[in-house]
Amino acid sequence: MQNKGLIKVFAILFGLVSLYQLSFTFLANKVEDEANVYAESKVSDNDARKKANLERKYLDSVANKDIINLGIAQYSYNDVKDKEMNLGLDLKGGINAILQVSVKEVLKSLSNESKNEVFNNALTAADERLKNSNDTYLNLFFEEFEKIAGDTKLSDPSIFGTKALSEKIAFNEENATVKETLQEEINSSIGTAFEVLRSRIDKFGVTQPNIQRIGNSGRIQIELPGAKDIDRVTKLITSKAELQFWEVYSNAEMQNFFFAANAKVAELLKDDSEIEKEKDSVKKDDIDDLLGETADSTKVQKNLFTYLLPNVAQSQQQVSSLVAQARVLDTATVNDLLAKKEVRALLPSEVRYAKFLWDYKPFDNKNVDENTEQFIGLYAIKSNRKGKPTIEGDVILDAAQVFDQLNKPEVSMTMNSSGTKQWAKMTADNVGKFVAVVLDDYVYTAPSVNQAITGGRTSISGGSMTVAEAEDIATVLKAGKLPAAARIIQAEVVGPSLGQEAINASFLSFGLAIILVLLWMILYYGKAGLYADVALVVNILFIFGILASFNAVLTLPGIAGIILTIGMSVDANVIIFERIKEGLFKKKGLKQSVEEGFSVKGALSAIIDANITTLLTGIILYVFGTGPIKGFALTLMIGIATSLFTAVFITRILIDGAVNKGTNLTFNTSFSKGWFQNINVEFLKKRKIAYFISGAIIIGGLISIFTIGLKQGVDFKGGRSYVVRFDQDMSATEVAGTLKDAFGTAPEVKTYGTDNQLKITTVFRIDEEGVEVDEEVQNTLYTGLKSYLGDLSYENFKPGFEKEGAGVMSYVKVEPTIADDIKTSALYAVFGSLLVVFLYILLRFRKVSFSIGAVVAVFHDVLIVLGVFSIFYKVMPFDMEIGQSFIAAILTVVGYSLNDTVVIFDRIREFAGIHTKWQYSEVVDKALSSTLGRTINTSLTTLLVMLAIFSFGGDSIRGFMFALIVGVAVGTYSSLFVATPIMYDTSKKEEKNK
Predict the structure, then answer these.
(1) Is residue 517 within 8 Å of residue 127, measured between CB atoms?
(2) For 489-531, what is each residue's pLDDT tens digit?
(3) What is the rounded CA–CA span in Å between residue 612 and residue 896?
(4) Do 217 and 103 touch, CB atoms closer than 8 A?
(5) Which one of 743, 830, 855, 956 is most buried, by most CB atoms within 10 A?
(6) Measured distance CA(550)–CA(211) in Å, rounded
(7) 850 vs 975: CA distance, rounded Å
(8) Residue 475 near residue 203 (C-beta atoms within 8 A)
(9) Cα–Cα distance measured from residue 408 to residue 465, given in angstroms and rounded to the nearest whole number
(10) Cα separation values, 757 from 616, 724, 731, Å
């Protein structure tokens, strides 16, 4: 091999650079461990929130202090943190969310809230179609508008032909041209939303945040690894920052309305219940007759005050801006009741436009049973016919978190000249009355006005406002208002406790897998195996070094990808060593055998072909995948490149060095000597038996798929999934029954890992939008599980922060709309990979029969894996969901199966060129027999690695690894008994057709 010196220098320099890059990760971890020790020493009650705040304070205090001095350069904690390896959510905890900017809201805003019937009907129809379509909202709206428009055009003055858009949309302009203008406006709004969100996140202080636009879909992906206060993050990224100043009705002005409304609601609820009573009357009468019982006359009739507690003013001292309060769980019911037209009709003429808004923050209160529950205040805002506030937030020039005279946090705001005048007039008109500061339809403060405020300054304050809340409000106000609402359509939350457990489990499995591989290579190949092990360790160093250098994100599937590349690295060495052994068996001499083994005519051609097919699979995974799947694909692609380099060059340098020193390398041991030599299996004669076995398994799997079905994960069907840990072992069936009362229908509940941990999946209210809906569903879950949680508070139950015991460890939400998109992308990924591989093999081997054999074998493997998942998902003690991770596993199986098949095909092509007088069936059988040692050795090594991850890698990756294990076993079988026989039968037909 030429240029050995250059390769040695490159390898040494690359290794040093990798160690240098990884050192930042170790240094950052060291400082964070010190912060953790400091926080634990200061917190005696294991309060995770206090501990997290103390850790943050410690890290802030050392942020700019030098922690390492190299003489020529000094690095602070912040410098080190910027250069450390990024850990994904599944290893570090945090939140990954996809936000959908409301294109509908942008269109309504551009039309100046048009009341045009055709326009609004088209919007409604587009809303419905979006639920089952992958098309953009604008395209759907445009199609629906065209269907019902008649002579009405988008440029109509009552729609988009407004004064505000007069320079962009001409009178009577064609719809197609208007649509182009609308697309530009929508893109601009999404761009603005992106910049606003990025500004907010930058000020939030999370290290290594990731925010990116997803094409022109109006979607923005935000990943905040290490974020612990999930509620705070959610409010920060979904807040529209629509600030308004309103006049407020007092409780004294509204109490007569509430008493009248209470009586009216009692009537309405009674009328609604009459139908249900009539349905059950015959059955109840029969039961009463049989039991000799009468109806319960003491049953309480529900009314408005069942859900809402009015704040009655019996004296002037009790006059307040707070008109009522309710349990957080009852707010949706109260909203519905107060919105009923029969109830609104009771409002006196002077308050007929009153708008009811809730406080921004709930408080703890004892109910009639002396149990602590969360309540929230209600305010009555003086709205008007147009629903326009007295002053809007665009008058705010600056906002900052400060402290008031009592040293309580508040948000100080400075107004422009126009706002100063408006604020002075508004406060002067309301001396002795109340005004409210409203942010995103939540009341943050509603104080009494003592005198006119003329200085152009005001503040947002609250008795229970925290510094963090004040900082976040100031942040969103300074960053600016979102042009349209952004809602979370997909979210994944992983608590730091679960993340730490994943790190421990992944490194245990990683270490065990490496040890197994290193020992096996020495046991099987002796000293040559030791050289391969050195190359393998260098390969691992290179992979982690590259990940750290480019700030790539390491995820749990990513670690699986690294371990898979270890198997592929071993495979390359196995192919080379087996070729060298063949040369030694033919008495060619050690030096010549080594030369041939590392040559293109030897092992290199098969290694390159096999790695390219896997690389193509990795590229497709990266293009179509999201989140952890991208992490898996990235490490797979990096691993392929480094494995090729270390197996071909590093191993070669070590072996050449040993050969030049006169070392006697036999490439086997007393344990493996004679294995897989002189094998002559007639594979093709057994192909009909193999066809029958494969056909029977596939048919059985298909029957199961069409009858039992597959267990789709939430990322394919939509829904919410919670992993909840308890302080005691739990019965999944019992919990499902308990939660049926809370959710209306029984959720899917399954033991997740240990017996005290459950995975609870529900579609309860998944079609409803809004952060408040997510909060209410989570609150409903807590209420339903309360009997199992002891004295655990709702705040400690929610995901985020470290948990000593019970609580939500992780949470996933996927709305049905994006679930369809994910499913479609997955199908594109699978069929795209098959097409690319078909074309590559056709290009490489120049015969359609080779491509057909490979693709049929891949279909065979995929169908069997699907069948196994359909048959066993109800009985296996781990998740066997069909979701994005499963698709990643399927594509990995495709890559592995092709890897194996291509190596065999490469040998068939070689034998066909050498043994031209042999029957083609003999060529195929001999080629299969000669590669059998490599096939079994590589498969065994890969399976050992995967079994180690499956056994010790953690619950979240177990289903993924099971798919890989089944796929590798089936892929090994199919390369011998499906791909090659199909190729042989197809080639015979090709010959006949000629």
Answers:
(1) no
(2) 777 777 766 666 666 776 777 778 778 888 888 888 888 888 8
(3) 11
(4) no
(5) 956
(6) 17
(7) 12
(8) yes
(9) 8
(10) 38, 6, 10
Task: Provide the 3-class DSSP secondary structure of residue 455.
Answer: coil
pLDDT tens digit string along 346-390?
998 888 889 999 988 888 776 655 566 778 899 999 988 878 888
What are the Cα distances from residue 71, in Å, to 25, 85, 155? 20, 24, 68
Element (H, E) at 244: strand 243-249
Residue 992 has pLDDT above 70, yes or no: no
Comparing CA positions, the residue from 642, 686, 636 lying closest to residue 833 is 636
CA nearest 739: which of 806, 774, 789, 784? Answer: 784
Neighbours of 689 (CB within 10 A): 10
SS3 804: coil
Q: Rounded to an integer, what distance in angstroms lies between the CA atom of residue 657 and that of residue 649?
A: 12
**DSSP per position, 10-26:** HHHHHHHHHHHHHHHHH
Cα 679 to chain centroid, rounded: 49
C-beta of residue 895 within 8 angstroms of C-beta of residue 618: yes
The residues facing 811 across adjacent strands are 493, 722
Q: Which residues contact 516 (CB under 8 A, 6 or more apart)?
A: 944, 945, 948
> How far is Cα 746 from Cα 755, in angstroms, rounded to an integer?
20
88 and 556 Cβ atoms separated by less than 8 Å: yes
Q: Can you give 842-895 as a three-state secondary structure string? A: HHHHCCHHHHHHHHHHHHHHHHHHHHHHHHHCCCCCCCCCECHHHHHHHHHHHH
pLDDT digits (tens, 9 = 90+) for 741-791: 888 777 888 877 677 888 888 888 877 777 778 888 888 888 888 888 888
Amino acid in the structure at residue 181? T
Structure tokens, 134: 């992958």
Chain-centre distance for alpha carbon 149: 40
Structure tokens at 369: 């049973």
Distance, CA of 773 to CA of 795 (rounded, Å): 17
What are the b/e assignments for 820-841, b being 16+ CB within 10 Å?
A: bbbbebbeebbebbbeebbebb
- Give the torsion through C-alpha atoms of 693, 698, 699, 704, to 10 deg: 130
Q: Are 312 and 306 in contact (CB under 8 A)?
A: no
What DSSP character marks residue 671? T
pLDDT digits (tens, 9 = 90+) for 572-586: 788 788 778 877 777
Sign for the CA dihedral angle at 896, 898, 899, 900 comes to positive
User: How far apart are the C-alpha atoms of 471 and 489, rounded to whole Å?
Assistant: 26
The structure's pTM equals 0.67
- Name the burial class of residue 777, with classes exposed (0-12), middle (13-18) and buried (19+) by CB atoms within 10 angstroms of its CB: buried
* Pair type for strands 486-494 and 94-101: antiparallel
Distances in Å between the alpha carbon of 752 and those of 430, 721, 731, 879? 58, 12, 11, 7
Quick one: pLDDT band at residue 953, thresholds 50, 70, 90? Answer: low
Termini Cα distance of the chain: 44
Q: How far is CA 842 from the centre of its chain?
A: 37
**Which residues does 623 contact at the CB level (< 8 Å), separation at least 6?**
829
CA distance linking residue 745 with residue 719, whole number of Å:
13
Token pair, residue 511, equals: 């270490």
The number of beta carbons lying within 10 Å of the beta carbon of residue 281 is 11
C-alpha 97/C-alpha 90 separation (Å) is 14
Please report, for the chain, how many H helices and E strands are present, in that order: 33, 24
Gap between the Cα atoms of 618 and 148, Å rounded? 46
Beta-bridge mates of residue 375: 327, 363
Q: 222 forms bridges with which residues in the sheet?
A: 97, 211
Instruction: Report the percentage of the chain scoring pLDDT > 90.
Output: 5
In eight-state DSSP terms, residue 573 is H
- Rounded distance, CA 598 to CA 396, Å? 71
Chain-centre distance of CA 598, in angstroms? 43
Is the distance from CB of 752 to CB of 735 less than 8 angstroms? no
